[in-house]
Amino acid sequence: MTQLKTLAPYDFPSSDAVDNYAGRQLLYINWERHRMFSRPFVLALPPETLFGEIIDTHMTDCFSYHPDWAQIDWSAVQWLNGSRPVVLDRNKSLADNGIGHKDLIRFITPGLDGIAGSGY
Amino acid sequence: MDMKVAKKLGLKERYTMMTRDLAWDTTFQPMDKVFPQVGYEGIKIHDWDKWEDPFRLTMDAYWKYQAEKERKLYAILDAFNQNNGHLSVTDARYINVLKLFLGSTPPLELMAARGFSMVARQMVGAGPRVACMMQSVDEYRHFQTQIHSISNYNRFYNGLDEFAHQQSRMWYLSDGKSFFDDAITAGPFEFMVAIGFAFEYVLTNILFVPFISGAAYNGDMAAMTVGFSAQSDEARHMTLGLECIKFMLEQDPDNLPIVQRWIDKWTWRGTRKLASVGMMMDYMLPKRIMSFKEAWEIYFEQNGTALFTDLARYGIKVPKCFEQTIEEKEHITHQSWIGFYMKPDATPFHTWMPQPEELDWLSEKYPNTFDKYYRPVYEYWIEQEKAGNRFNNKTQPMNCQVCVSTIKFNEPGDPMEMCFRETEYKGEKFHFCSDHCKEIFEDEPEKYVQTFISSHAALQGKCEPEGTDVNAHDYRPGARMHAYWRMDKRASGDFNGSEDQKNFAKWRAQATRN
Q1: Residues B150-198: pLDDT tens digits?
Q2: Are A102 and B428 within 8 A, CB to CB?
Q3: Within a domain: residue B20?
Q4: pLDDT by residue (tens digit) across B95-144?
Q5: Which CATH number is A78's domain given?
Q6: Residue B163 sits in which domain range?
Q7: What is the nearest CA distance from A100 to chain B, expressed in angstroms?
Q8: What is the rounded average pLDDT for all residues in chain B?
């Protein structure tokens, strides 16, 4: 229950409601145990964007700096939406993969734990 | 004829006449309409006269003391300038501490000045009103002296000139701005807990160690004097914050849970804000004073434990986040430096990889964590830099909805895993860096749905420099962030090869040989 106390009616819109993104939605991406990238990155994309396109352009642009990137066995990659395991199809769109506004997609690359296994 | 000489007033009488005796209860309007804000937060005050004035300082004496401090301060600043004092600092890397500290702090001092003058207007008792008014003037003074300190360096080095523009726009300044925006939009009592108690009392030493001692250790007499001049005010501020806590707790038992929630909230928010201060201590001071971990142990764990033991008689418990901060002291400065190092184009100060002896210092100071988690990636980056492949990440960050830090901290108990928390409110998802930030959101979601997150605003097209054609066929929201931030290219990038580095070496050489 809210603890908010005010002297007057208090009702303001969310700064990041999906309507503010002109037909696009926010998507966060994180590579687990590769903390060299410090934090997830954010994109604004139309929901019809193919998931494969995100891997091939945005994720590759960001993560290929890491020597583990070239080692990834994509058939073994595990995906999470927040903390929930999900199956994602690179040939389907964000919407068809069930990815909504402000979802956080995390991927685990088994056997790859960053530089010298440090998680970075 | 004998003259009757009135007896000179004692300090206490004088104080009473100059403060409490000047106050009155209103009669044309009821007091609760004149002071509407003191009631709505739920804090119950029965007798404002019970407020103990912790320092009996009258306004006339205040001006006298402060004027004396200013005279001393500006004499030293002048001497520093006339002697090219900027060339006596240990290493040009040090100047980046000033860029980060003095680039982010003055606007926050100004917010504190505004906040205390608002609280001064709202408090019913004359004692707290006068004390808050003085603190407001102090904060304004700190704002001014820090800007004067910036201007001494701004003539010689890059990246110091747009701090005011960048304050409400730039990604890494959003955490401090959010901290003060949150405090100033709360009621007067919560503001006092936020700034007067949590920030000024519990955390202020951590803030001043890297700044004042760091300046002294690194030969910067100007910044050191600015710091000392401010710190003599801080003692008064700390006393005011603590007195306000005790006053609320003594007035009514119903105040306890409210005050406890605020202490939990603001100690955590302050801790998050200090991650970048700790990073200055461990990474940015060429000559280090102590590690952030050591400072945390002395100033937070030991002093904080003593403070909360003292407050236990009122029923106050140590802040909920206490244990988590103890675990995090081994990590947060490294995690912060990694976050800044990887974005060399996105700050108006330089970053760099530690030198070999600095890596060893970090190993020694952080025996449980540094070699295991952080040294390998640094050594990798050092090699990459040598090969001409300095890390430069181009992506935009994900931030915590409450503290607005980038989400970069580890899951408690597992330094290899990132900590994520999320919740849903009115059908929209919100993300947090920690359980504590999530709880703060859930207590007042109506407030935090409005958080300004720079990367999100940019993707909405709200961060465009003047003259951007949003109808152009190749328009991409957020593509011109550097222009929007007014980033000076000379001020960004790695320290190695920077104009500051070259100029400092050249000017110092001119001082020592023909």
Answers
A1: 888 999 999 999 999 999 999 999 999 999 999 999 999 999 999 999 9
A2: yes
A3: no
A4: 999 999 988 999 999 999 999 999 999 999 998 999 999 999 999 999 99
A5: 3.10.20.560
A6: 48-463+482-512
A7: 9
A8: 94
**How buried is B67 (Cβ within 10 angstroms: 0-12 exposed, 13-18 middle, 19+ buried)?**
exposed
Looking at the domain assignment, is residue B23 inside a domain? no
N-terminal to C-terminal alpha carbon distance within chain B:
79
Is there a contact between B398 and A104 if contact means CB atoms under 8 Å apart? yes
At residue B376, φ and ψ (nearest 5 deg) are: -55, -40
Task: Please report, for the domain that includes residue B406, its CATH number.
Answer: 1.10.620.20
Q: Does residue B461 contact residue B469 with C-beta atoms inside 8 Å? A: no
CA angle at residue A84 from A81 to A90, to 5 degrees? Answer: 45
Is residue B231 a contact partner of residue B172, using CB atoms and an 8 Å limit? Answer: no
Interface test with A, best of B418, B433, B438, B476 (most A CBs within 10 A): B418
What tokens were used for A4?
């908010």
- On whether residue A66 sits in a domain, the answer given is yes
- Residue B91's pLDDT is 92
Angle at B436 between CA B422 and CA A25, to 5 degrees: 25
Adjacent-strand bridge partners of A85: A80
CB atoms near residue A116 (< 10 Å): 14
Token pair listed for A45: 């994309």
Kindly state whether residue A103 falls inside one of the protein's structural domains. Answer: yes
Q: Cα B18 to the chain's mean position, in Å? A: 33
Total tally of structural domains belonging to chain B: 1
* Structural domain total, chain A: 1
B249 in any annotated domain: yes
Cβ neighbour number for residue B450 with a 10 Å cutoff = 14
CB atoms near residue B368 (< 10 Å): 11
Chain B, 401 to 430: residues with Cβ < 8 Å from chain A are 406-408, 410, 415-418, 420, 422, 426, 428-430
Note whether B53 and B131 are within 8 A (CB). yes
Interface predicted TM-score (ipTM): 0.98
Question: Which of A28-32, A100-104, B202-206, B399-403 comes out lowest in average pLDDT?
Answer: B202-206
B197-218 in b/e form (b: 16+ CB < 10 A) is bbbbbbbbbbbbbbbbbbbbbb
- The predicted model scores a pTM of 0.96
Q: What does each C-alpha distance from B196 to A55, B40, B116, B266, B370 come to in angstroms?
A: 48, 19, 9, 10, 35
Structure token pair of residue B120? 């001064």
